[in-house]
Write the structure tokens for this entry.
Amino acid sequence: MDFQIREAISNNLKGNSATDIRNVVEDAIQRGEEHLLPGLGVIFEKWWKMADDTKRSSVLNEISAAFK
């Protein structure tokens, strides 16, 4: 089976509002199911590609602090 998760997640979220996407993220985190992690990764990857270095550095500092 040739399943492209990036494409599927992108298609499912295309046109969604910020509130819709927030609900998707919060639902995935609340469920805590391992199979939802790739979807969160796709969301992060999309954001990463559009963020500038300042935004990336800020988020990386926050993520680093979360793992301390």
The mean pLDDT is 94. The chain has one domain: 5-66. DSSP finds four helices and no strands in the chain.
